[in-house]
Design brief:
Length: 100
């Protein structure tokens, strides 16, 4: 991973829908700086009882996430998203985002 690369630029307080996918195996996807709601898994809506705020979700196929960040982050101290399996993080399965 190149720490100088900003992969995404988000707008403060603006809701976004992220689609996270994997085709090899399940990955625990984690986001720093905010919480999110899981809207669907593999094209199926998630039961309401499971839509509480999270900062990590096990992605096995695809997951649609509602993300809204209410804290600023610049390129000097960006937020990160990554797989929570340490070996995968070490291999670069991560990215950074700013919020302005």
């Amino acid at each position: 991973m190149d720490m100088a690369v900003i992969n995404e630029e988000l707008r403060l307080g603006e809701a976004e829908i992220w689609e996270v996918s994997t085709d090899m195996m399940a990955h625990p996807f984690h986001v720093h700086g905010t919480s999110f709601q899981v809207l669907s898994r593999n094209g199926r809506k998630v039961d309401y009882a499971k839509t509480g705020l999270k900062d990590v979700v096990l992605v096995d196929g695809t997951a649609e996430l509602l993300v809204q960040v209410n804290r600023k982050a610049d390129a000097n101290q960006p937020f990160m998203f990554h797989c929570h399996i340490l070996e995968h993080e070490d291999l670069g399965m991560m990215g950074q985002f700013t919020v302005s």
